[in-house]
Amino acid sequence: MNQKVKVQKHHTKKEHYPHPATYQNTVVLESDAEASILYGCNDRYLRLVKDTFQVQLVARHGLLKLEGEKEQVDTSKEVLNRLLEIVRSTGKLELEDVEQVILDAKNGSKDELCQIIDVFQKNVVIKPKTDGQMKYIEAIRGNDLVICIGPAGTGKTYLAVAMALSYLKNGRIRKIVLARPAVEAGEKLGYLPGDIRAKVNPYLHPLYDALEDMMDFGHVKKYIENDLIEILPLAYMRGRTLSDAFVILDEAQNCTVKQMKTFLTRLGTKSKMVVTGDITQVDLSAGEISGLIDSQDRLMNVHNISFIYLKKSDIVRHRLVQDIIDAYEL
């Protein structure tokens, strides 16, 4: 009698290896209308971001969920947040806006993308060009009062004006106030023609120049007429309280101690203040103490006041400017 031999079947156990963890992040949307503009017609803009950075995008319940490799997800989030800033400030989004923001992200790191300052003029990319300038921008974003000291050509005023316009464009402040002391640098106001406004106007021209780099001339004029931007001599600041504003004092080395105190105490609620100057170019009368120099001793350790010192290595004007500064220091 044949016996059946029981053959035991051995099942090879399949090994299951976990997939690499998918990194996730989210972008918060405020409304369906905002989402519709951001996504574009037939989700065109969303697909452009998705295909460029190879991430998965899932929209649900007011959230846009991003999945993929960490670096790509984080960069995509920065791109989407920059696009949302445009949507929230203008109420629209063009294909060229999306392509420009994506291009900026591809050409630089995520950190560089974060440093781009969103101003009114299209096709104008403003961002810090040196480590010192990056620290300056970070200080403005993180403090209510920033005092920036450095030589000519380091972008002290230009970057402060750019940040002020960015805050105004994105609805974070209600108005911009730009002030300068009208102190003669070897010239006398009395010899200039016109009334007091005409006499001080030459001192304010650098502020107009910075504005017109970042806004159309017509917009600058309109914003000034509507009191959204004020450009005025320091003497006109007395007695005011500036709330919900971005306030800049330029050429502050030419303020007296009393003027500096008067200016700094104008700071109101929901406001930011930036003070800029070059302590090597004081034009005050002999024996008069510069309020900017004095402020270093008085305010250096005050909470939420940041001192930023830019150097010759931060000069971004013509390469000769640094050589000229060196020559005059001999």
Would you identify the regions where 5 or more consecutive residues have pLDDT less than 50? 7-20, 184-193
Tell me, rounded to a whole number, the average pLDDT. Answer: 82
Q: Helix proportion of residues, in percent?
A: 40-55%
**% residues in beta strands:** 5-15%
Largest sheet: 6 strands, parallel
**N-to-C order of helices and strands:** EHHEEHHHHEHEHHEEHEHEH
Biggest sheet: strand arrangement: 6-5-7-8-4-9
Summed up, the helix count is: 12
Please give the radius of gyration in angstroms: 27 Å
**Overall morphology:** elongated
Description:
This protein has 330 residues and is α/β, with parallel strands linked by helices. Helices cover 42% and strands 15% of the residues. It has a six-stranded parallel sheet, with helices on both faces. Helix 6 (131-142) crosses helix 7, helix 7 (156-169) packs across helix 8 and helix 10 crosses helix 11. Mean pLDDT is 82; it is low at 7-20 and 184-193.
